[in-house]
Amino acid sequence: MAVKTHTWVTLWFILTAPVIFWDVGYCFMRPRSMLGGDLHWIWKPYEIYQNVDYVYGIKALEENDGFTNAQSLLNIVETLMNLAYVYLAHISGWSPAPLVGFAAATMTLSKTILYWAQEYYCGFCAIGHNTLSDLIIYWIIPNGYVCSFFIGLIRADGSFRCRLWIVIPSLIIVRLGKDLATSLHVAERAATKSASGKQK
After folding, report:
1. Which tens digit of pLDDT belongs to each residue from 81-133?
2. I want to staple 109 with a disulfide (CB 3.0 to 4.6 A). Which of 117, 163, 169, 183 is the partner?
3. Which is nearest to 94 in space by CA: 173, 3, 186?
4. Those residues with Cβ within 8 angstroms of residue 48's Cβ, 6 or more apart along the chain or in another chain
């Protein structure tokens, strides 16, 4: 059976890869990527963000907080899975490819919810110092709740940090989940038909 693909899913996986790898680079290259570092010019928009979200700032680095790089490591895994889906679905034509995409989108959604939950359960320890307007402009909107894809791509500080990492992965999970369920239903019918043919 041919792999059913969806252009919007593929575009999401391809277009988000460089953004994620850019973010991963910032996290793994700290302190050199931070304000004052010799590589900061590559991550200039983080000049504002590192002071808005302490997970990305000096505080987490000085406290040797492992969450920043741990979530970045998972970003690499999920992005490689996203790209594997694209390759397996569009080039190899491997029928289980939607399972890889489904798992990758589930990772993205779960990690994003974990990021928000961690902030809630630590009493907003990384973002609670912000004014409400800064919090809305630099953290809430870019982190997935009220930005739109086209308007939110460029934030006020010029960065490409609009993360619809809750809405889009959820839609991908639903879409690929339906495709997987349909494939399983077709396989079940074929198996039942084959089994009933053998009994005759």
Report:
1. 999 999 999 999 999 999 999 999 999 999 988 988 898 899 999 999 999 88
2. 169
3. 3
4. 138, 157, 159
